[in-house]
Design brief:
Elements: E1 23-27, H1 31-36, E2 46-50, E3 55-56, E4 62-64, E5 71-72, E6 75-81, H2 90-93, E7 97-104, E8 107-108, H3 109-118, H4 123-126, E9 132-133, E10 138-139, E11 150-155, E12 158-164, H5 172-182, E13 190-192, E14 207-212, E15 216-224
Parallel strand pairs: 1-13, 3-9, 4-15
Antiparallel strand pairs: 1-2, 5-8, 6-7, 6-13, 7-10, 11-12, 11-14, 14-15
The structure holds ligand LVPGNMZS and magnesium ion.
The site of ligand LVPGNMZS has 10 residues, from loops.
């Protein structure tokens, strides 16, 4: 009698966006993007959070919130954690990575400007429904080095943004080690690692296409949020 076939997990990590886990975001991790926003590159990672309800998958639209008139997509490498991670060293951090994905850190830039001016948290700018479009999962075995990837974004077929993850100010191990000193990370949590320069607004009905060269791509349409629906 052979051993029973291993049942597929009821909740595979390859569908991490269904786990209801945390999305820890890093800002200004590319010097040129910090500068285009009128900011200086940070001396330590700038962190903010998105709720798991922010995820949206291809086939569903990205909503521009009713209070937003300047919606910016930010293509970012997403790191998916494979186990509980608390105060891990930089040397051990990569052992805690299960894989990667591409996300768009959708940003209500006008709301963010207001929040910055008033010293308020960025919640309205960063945490609205569909503010985290997410690609398929890529197991870490398929990525030789997460710092040798090229991200791109097209809007209505025109190339809008391109960047190399080798330009990140803080590397994946540095981010995981720093974050895990402050926020215990768990299997299925995701770290968004920041966007390269070239951000700009998109409009209702725009077609977004984003990808990681040689790995994956994804498409979304922008729609206007209608209150009450
Ligand atoms: C100013 C920002 O929105 C920072 C950010 O999200 C980034 O990717 O950098
Ligand atoms: Mg971002």
């Amino acid at each position: 009698m052979g051993s029973p076939a291993m049942a597929a997990p009821a909740r595979p990590l390859s569908r991490f966006w269904e786990w209801g886990r945390s999305i820890v975001c890093v800002g200004r991790n590319y010097a040129e993007h910090a500068r285009e926003m009128g900011e200086t590159p940070p001396c330590r990672p700038l962190l903010f959070l998105k709720p798991a309800s922010a995820y949206v998958r291809p086939g569903s639209p990205v909503q521009r919130p009713y209070y937003c008139r300047r919606l910016h997509p930010e293509p970012e490498l997403a790191v998916v954690l494979g186990r509980r991670t608390r105060a891990v060293s930089r040397d051990d951090a990569m052992q805690h990575v299960a894989g990667y994905a591409l996300c768009l850190d959708m940003t209500a830039r006008d709301a963010q400007d207001t929040c910055k001016a008033r010293g308020l948290p960025w919640t309205l700018a960063k945490s609205f429904d569909t503010s985290c479009p997410v690609s398929d999962f890529v197991p870490k075995e398929h990525v030789a080095d997460p710092h040798c990837l090229r991200l791109w974004l097209k809007v209505n077929g025109q190339l809008r943004q391109e960047g190399d993850t080798g330009d990140m100010l803080f590397s994946v191990p540095e981010l995981i080690s720093y974050i895990s000193e402050i926020i215990t990370l768990h299997e299925g949590d995701v770290v968004l690692t920041g966007t390269p320069p070239g951000v700009a607004a998109v409009e209702e009905h725009d077609e977004l296409e984003a990808g990681i060269h040689g790995l994956l791509s994804m498409r979304f349409t922008v729609v206007q949020q209608r209150l009450g629906v």
